[in-house]
Amino acid sequence: MKKLIFSLAALLFCFPSFAQLAQGNQLIGARLGLGFQLENSGVSYSDYSRVDWGSLGAEYGLSYYYLVTDKVGIGADVSYGDFEGGDLFVSSDKVNDRTRLFNTFLSARFTSNPSSVFRLYMPMGIGITTSHQHLHIDKGGTKYENRVTDTSLGWFVGGGFEFDFGRGSDWSMGLEARYNAFSVDTDRLTRNAPPAVKGVGNRHLSYMSFHLRVNKRF
Q1: How does pLDDT run across 122-154, given as a tens digit for each residue?
Q2: Closest Cα to residue 18, out of 160, 159, 118, 161?
Q3: If you count Cβ atoms within 10 Å of the first and of the last residue's Cβ in the chain, which end, N or C, has fewer?
């Protein structure tokens, strides 16, 4: 059994691909996935309660890379995310911070084994994140609602794998995970709010996202 596993691994990582990555290739990709927050929004509506900015949401993206070497690509990445906020499960709390994100990044992609059938790669990018937040609080006698659009520095780093559809195909697909970060000004979101609703100034937010990706190579 050990010999069989070793043989399969050797074929997976060492056997030349039918349509391997090469210097000068261009990659256009699309992805669809889910994301979830890693911390709360920082906005409070009582001494112990904080508002979630996005328990679970959908994210869509497009990317373009030009391969300056067979392992290194540079390009651009854009994405849109819609995070509902509130609790993941049904709750009696009428507290919500729906957050919609639009990311525009300069990005790079590093492929560890460009000539293999099964390729591992690491994408990263930095640029501008525009966030639109709709805060709604109606609980315990506290009522407040506000909408704010904020722009900040955003960035991501991730990892993924992909494989070609078949012999001679320029199409590939795979899975990708990312850590994403940006900032919001919570004081703008809570301006003119009742005393119970408070912000924490500039708040760094982050989320994890998991995507199914399809690429076209030419």
Answers
A1: 999 999 999 999 999 988 788 899 999 999 999
A2: 118
A3: N
